[in-house]
Amino acid sequence: MIEKEWSRLKEKYRGSDTVCITDEGTIDFSPQSFRETELNGSRLSYDEYLDIMRSSGHSLRKYLEQFFYSGIRYADCRARIERTDRDKGRILFLSIFISGTRGDGSIIDGKEDHVWIDKKGFEAFDENDCVSFTAEIYRYIKLGSGKRLDYSLRDPENIKRTDPYELPTDEALEKQAFRDLLCEVCPYSEQCFGEPCLAGDRWNDLFG
Questions:
Q1: What is the rounded distance in angstroms from the CA atom of residue 190 to the CA atom of residue 186?
Q2: Chain segment 58-94, per-residue pLDDT in tens
Q3: What is the pTM of this model?
Q4: How far is residue 190 from each of residues 21, 26, 69, 104, 183, measured CA to CA in Å?
Q5: HEC profile of 36-58
């Protein structure tokens, strides 16, 4: 998206509750979304926030973003503890499996490579331990080498040790995304409450 197109998009939608899907990622023009974003002490104008959102589109955590815009604010997680930053009281998780339930009762899965989270609640665990927990998904401004918008997890609950687990494959997640797309355009979508599928076997055969 060239600067001229970006300026035109901002002029048209700034201050509205519009969410645009662009070739540079999701742009959420809602002033409320700006107010609800964790700024980490940085002072940003609304327009600066939009520019940061645009520049962050290809580097943020895509599945946490997908859950966030699906209305899922809390996710069930499994993760492996990589290491602890004792100075900052944080813990690094790798290979995070996330699962959430949408308003219509359907369940979606996802995965993320790494997430830092507050260590509180994980004091009894060691590096390489696998844990399960429920956590809030939130949007924040990441500081460091330039400001960047991203998504993360906070306020974990129901923390338990768990057995080693497998992440969903890229193929399985692509199939899930295709199934979701078919459900959106299904002629029975307004009458559907999940299972059983009202469209029948022929429609389901499109995604196996």
A1: 9
A2: 889 999 999 999 899 999 999 999 998 888 889 999 9
A3: 0.83
A4: 23, 25, 19, 11, 10
A5: HCECCCCCCCHHHHHHHHHHCCC
